[in-house]
């Protein structure tokens, strides 16, 4: 016979509260565990059956064998948004955009509602990034009723134009600053070339030493060669 179902986990709050009140140590009465308040607001479920998770999308068609597996029935469904596929396409074509720093700070959590993507890809208070292309493309597809490829080409061309303008502004600002005496140090290319030259000089020094060592070994090998005796007189002289 089984012992039946255990409900001690559902009464964990009452048990912990009783231990705190009846504790002989006064310091423990005022020191509640960190999880106690969470259990008070979100108590353990008293339903003995597992609820069926809400379906966020159309469930895929499973085979009979897969449909019989009950452990898959209660798994949370995968949440899919229209922007997911657009992000994958953009960052697959522009992997270096992932290396740019991202600004994830928001003011009140509703900053996305203040964006008006009908005015273009450049939005006030938002740094130009791959997300700008994704949101602009999505707006062109849903509102302007453009195809996915056409909307992607239009948003991508706007993105390229703004990136080119940023590069031109950055280069002109650097030239103006240098004209007034500013010094920015070495560029990234100059630093990388310096490191490459240092590694090449180190290898050249090592290769020169190896060539000299091999030349010395080769010369020493010829110096230690002794001609073998061939005639009878030479053999008798060698035996004596």
Give an overview in words.
- By secondary structure, the protein is mainly α.
- It has three domains: 7-47, no CATH class; 82-179, no CATH class; 186-218.
- 52% of the residues lie in helices and 0% in strands.
- It is built from nine helices and no strands.
- The N and C termini lie far apart (107 Å).
- The mean pLDDT is 81.
Catalogue the unreliable spans: none
Structure classification: mainly alpha
> Could you tell me the radius of gyration in angstroms?
38 Å
How large is the share of residues in beta strands? Answer: under 5%
Q: In sequence order, what are the helices and strands, one letter per element?
A: HHHHHHHHH
Overall tally of domains = 3
Largest sheet features: none
Number of strands: 0
Task: Compute the number of helices.
Answer: 9
In helices, the fraction of residues equals 40-55%
Report the span from N to C terminus: 107 Å
Tell me, what's the shape?
extended
Mean pLDDT: 81
């Amino acid at each position: 016979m089984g012992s039946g179902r255990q409900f001690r986990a559902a009464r964990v709050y009452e048990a912990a509260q009783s231990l705190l009140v009846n504790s002989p140590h006064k310091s423990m009465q005022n020191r509640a565990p960190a999880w106690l308040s969470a259990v008070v607001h979100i108590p353990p479920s008293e339903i003995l059956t597992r609820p069926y998770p809400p379906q966020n999308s159309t469930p895929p068609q499973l085979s009979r064998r897969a449909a019989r597996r009950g452990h898959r029935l209660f798994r949370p469904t995968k949440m899919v948004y229209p922007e997911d596929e657009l992000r994958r396409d953009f960052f697959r074509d522009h992997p270096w955009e992932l290396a740019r720093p991202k600004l994830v700070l928001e003011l009140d959590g509703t900053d996305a509602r203040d964006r008006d993507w009908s005015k273009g890809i450049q939005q006030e208070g938002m740094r130009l990034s791959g997300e700008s292309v994704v949101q602009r493309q999505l707006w062109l597809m849903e509102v302007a009723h453009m195809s996915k490829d056409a909307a992607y080409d239009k948003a991508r061309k706007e993105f390229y134009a703004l990136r080119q303008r940023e590069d031109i502004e950055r280069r002109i600002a650097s030239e103006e600053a240098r004209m007034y005496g500013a010094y920015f140090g070495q560029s990234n290319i100059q630093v990388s070339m310096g490191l490459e030259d240092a590694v090449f000089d180190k290898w050249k020094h090592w290769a020169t030493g190896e060539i000299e060592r091999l030349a010395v070994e080769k010369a020493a090998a010829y110096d230690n060669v002794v001609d073998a005796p061939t005639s009878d007189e030479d053999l008798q002289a060698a035996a004596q």
